[in-house]
């Protein structure tokens, strides 16, 4: 499944940037790539990476193996490995300090019941944008989008 966020909408037609949902998959699979590497892949291959599931151990292994295949094909080497990010950073019952602190500063405090009701990919998006140094404005945009989407359910 490919989870899209409004703040990235301009990049989706060309996939000229690594979408947040692909970054989640890379983080949990323990794979690291640069934007240059990402852009070396064909549009079809980037689309496949967007849609590949990466939620359990088998899916993470398949995702990492496909990344190795693409890295070998385009870069002549295996993909760079890193320690998989611990999902406990965003899957605990309580919102991480980074999320609660940033949301409170914005006057948009995330309640514990709200945090617990969101699926893991939503929590990752909030955590990752809360700690982002390159796109600090993304946090508020993601939080508002998630609240709007949950309100529609």
Runs in which pLDDT lies below 50 for 5 or more consecutive residues are: none
Structural class: mainly alpha
Q: Estimate percent helicity.
A: 55-70%
Q: Describe the strand arrangement of the main beta sheet, using strand numbers.
A: 1-2
Q: Sheet bearing the most strands, described?
A: 2 strands, antiparallel
Total helical elements: 9
Q: Between the first and last Cα atoms, what is the distance in angstroms?
A: 18 Å
Radius of gyration: 16 Å
Binned strand content:
under 5%
**Could you give the order of the helices and strands?**
HEHHHEHHHHH
Mean pLDDT: 94
The shape, in one word, is globular
Give the domain tally: 2
Number of strands: 2
Verbal overview:
Helix content is 58%, strand content 3%. With 153 residues, the protein is mainly alpha-helical. It has 2 domains: 6-81, no CATH class; 88-152. It has a two-stranded antiparallel ribbon. The two termini are 18 Å apart.
Short description:
This protein has 153 residues and is mainly alpha-helical.
Search tags:
mainly alpha, two-stranded antiparallel ribbon, 2 strands, 153 residues, 58% helix, 9 helices, 2 domains, globular
């Amino acid at each position: 499944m490919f989870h899209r966020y409004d703040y990235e909408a301009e990049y989706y037609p060309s996939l000229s940037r690594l979408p947040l949902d692909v970054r989640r998959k890379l983080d949990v699979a323990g794979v690291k790539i640069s934007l240059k590497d990402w852009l070396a892949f064909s549009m079809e291959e980037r689309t496949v990476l967007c849609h590949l599931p990466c939620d359990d151990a088998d899916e993470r292994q398949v995702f990492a193996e496909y990344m190795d295949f693409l890295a070998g094909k385009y870069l002549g080497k295996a993909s760079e490995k890193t320690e998989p990010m611990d999902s406990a950073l965003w899957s605990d019952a309580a919102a991480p300090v980074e999320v609660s602190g940033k949301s409170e500063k914005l006057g948009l405090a995330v309640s514990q019941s709200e945090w617990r009701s969101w699926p893991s990919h939503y929590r990752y998006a909030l955590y990752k944008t809360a700690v982002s140094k390159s796109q600090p404005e993304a946090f508020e945009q993601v939080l508002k989008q998630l609240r709007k989407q949950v309100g529609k359910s």
